Structure formats: structure tokens, C-alpha cells
Here is the input.
Amino acid sequence: MNKVITINLNGNAYQIEERGYDSLLGYLDTAEAQLKDNPDRAEIMSDLEQAIAEKCRNFLSPQKTVVTSAEIDQIIKEMGPVEGDAEASGAKQSGAASTGRAQDPKGPKRLFRIREGKQIEGVCMGLAVYFGLDVTIVRLIFVALAIASGGIAIGGYLIMAVVVPFADTAEQQAAAYGTQFNAQEVIDQAKEHYASFKKDGEKWKQQAKEKKEEWQKSWRQTFGSHRYRWRPGYPPPSPLVGGLLPIFGILVGILSIVWIFAIISVINTHAIFGWPLPLRFPVWAAILILVILLNIVTGPFKYVRNARYGHPYGGIVAVWTSMAWMAFLIFISWFAYTHSPEVRTFLQNLPNVWDEIFHR
Amino acid sequence: MSIEGKLGPIRKGLLEFLILRIISADKVYVADMLKLLGNTEFATQEGTLYPLLSKMRRENLVDYEWRESETGPPRKYYSLTAKGRSQLTDLNEYWKLINDTISDLGNKQ
Here is the structure.
């Protein structure tokens, strides 16, 4: 079973296997680098994407919805290397097609996840290769860390599983195993970074301190010490607040579950419930946006919950505030639905979420 | 130098001429051009053709229009501009001249 990634080629969605996606990205990056002095670069890139899209379509049928890596390789071979303007015309080019990323083979060693020998997501394997250690040692260190940190290391693992790419192409593998890890170089680099950091650091430190004090002051003024604390001096919460609380709690719960599935969907398919991200849109940025979205949507509910604990603006006001906020969100959703075809596709695909997750 | 090394640049130089000829016959899009060239000595690929066509358009030799296609998104159909046509005429004549020269020279009188 191979991981499938949904991409957006010149406005159309295609599902391709993960390795094929990497090759395709490499081809397009090389093409773009070749055309960097070409005034029509954007237009040629969109022409190329459309040509690739048409070739993808030839491989698809109602029974076959995914373009395989081998088919992508064939498409790239058919497309041929993209040439810069200096020698824009060349027939029957013999020899090497540069399909991979143009990369210095002696470039620095980079951290990649490794598929071969992986247990979960290949993070430990990649770290072992990067530091030249036995993978068992890395795993033991990790387990020890996970216990000692009370689970925080697991979060670190998940973040790395998302952020660190797999070494799939030959160039990436070369970079993963790379030149021997040289402790002296690392120390030198660290010194260099530290020197430049120290220089700018003093200035930032001062600014950060001022900012912090400012925020703390305004925070205390607005919310004081009332948050999450029952104050005998305040009136008890109104029945309306009390009655709505469980409903809001359930809503927040549902939203959280949908949110978790959205994250899974982004990581697995590079699409949110079938709505593909743009070709080069990084997964970590999508996750960041989802985190912010969740906070925006659930924010007012939490506000009501806080109100129960004797918030200065508590009680009925908090309920109305959150109602207004929800109405605003619904309006924004409706507006986006009617004015943006992407959002419409996304919302129409929402019912497919279960298929996406359980029948892949 | 191998024979291929000598023939490559000749084909390379003639590709633009051939594209002008193909477009002069009919409005075509890139896949048509590739098909027409596919069975000849001048077989080429999208990676080469798109940059070349964009260069020719910048030189105002060709122009394109969008046309709907039955199976997919609209396609760019290329046609010659007045400048393209006059350059093609020049090239045709020059090509005839080269051909005559080649067959004349080296033949025993």
C-alpha cells in the first residue's frame, strides 16, 4: 500500500503516489530553476503543468483514480528536460534527462526520515542515520525521554514525523547518509550562530521584555485573577449559562474530533477532506492554520465556560457575545461558500470525510 | 566528434523553421506539433517546445488563442503572425538556396 497525495495541477485535482509526487516536484523545481531568467516563466510553468495534467488524465479511468509513481516517471520522461532560453530549441536531445532536484552531491548532510527499517514513522531511523548511531540506541533514548518528559517527547516525535520529509529520491538519500558527521564543523557552526545571535540578541531581549510587561499589564486589567476561579463576591451563573454549557461542550467536542480528522487528512493526503492544497503548500503550514482555526471557532465557547466562574463580563453577556461570534462565523462561511469555488468544494466534500479516513 | 554530435546542432537550428512550417499549415496546439514531429528526425518534447514557443511569441512570430477542448481544459492554438509568415518565406527561400548549393557543389561537372 502506498501513500497517496492529492495535488492541484493548473486548477485540477489529481491523486498521485507519494514517491511520484516527490519526483514531480523535483521536475517542476528543476524546470523553474532553468527558466529563472525567462520573462515568460510563469506562463511556461503553467503550460507544463497543464501538459502534465493531460498526461495524468490519460492514465485515469472511472476504475482507476490514482496515478502511480511509475506512470509519473514515464510522464516526466515524455516531457523531457526543460531548457533555459539560451538554447531554447533542441531536437532529439540524446542522453541524460535531469529529472531530479539539482543538488550538490557533496552538500551538507540533512535530516530525513528513512523508510527502510522503520517502526512507526521513520523518525528514529532518520536520527540514527543522521548521527551515525545504532537505531536501537536512538529508540531506547527516545523511550527514556518520553517517560522522563511525561510524554512531551512523543509530541516532538509527531512534529518530526510531520515536518521531516522521507528520503525518497536518490539525491535525498545521498543527503540523508551524506558526508560523515563532523563534530568540529557543528561546533564551529554553533559558535558562528551564537556570535550573530548575541549581537542581535541584546536588542531583541530588551524589546521582548518591554512587550511582555505591557501584555501582562493589559491581561491583568482585562481578566484579572478571575479566570477559572470561583469568586464568592460574584453572582452565581444564570440558568441560561448553566443550560447551554453542556451543549457547547458537546459542540466543542465534535469540532475537536473533526479537527483531528482534518489533521490526519492533511498529513496523509495533502488535502483537507478531499480539498487539495496547492502543489507546494507545506503540510506544517496547513496544520498551523488548522490550529489557529480551531482556536478561533472554539474560542467563544471557552469564553462562556470561563464566564461561569465569575467572569467580570460573565453570565448572559458572555452568551450573547459567543452567539454573535457564531453568527459571524456562519456568515463568513456562507460568504466564502457563495464566493469561493475552493471553499464550496471543501464543504461539499465534508460528507466524504468518513470514506477518506476509513476506506483509504 | 561523433556523427550524432554533428547532427544534433543542425536539427536544433532547424526546429524553429519546422515549427513555423507546421503552424503555417493549420492552427495547432502543442500535442499536435509533437505528434507531427514524433515520427521524424525532429522528434521533441514538451520541455523543449514550450520554452521555444514562448520565445517565438516574444519575437512576435506566432500568436495563440484559447480554444475549448472536448476532453479537458481549454488549449492554446498557435497561429503565425504577419512577421512570422514573412520570416517563413525568407527561411523557405534560404533553405532552397542551401539545398541547391549542396547538390551543386561536389558534383563533377
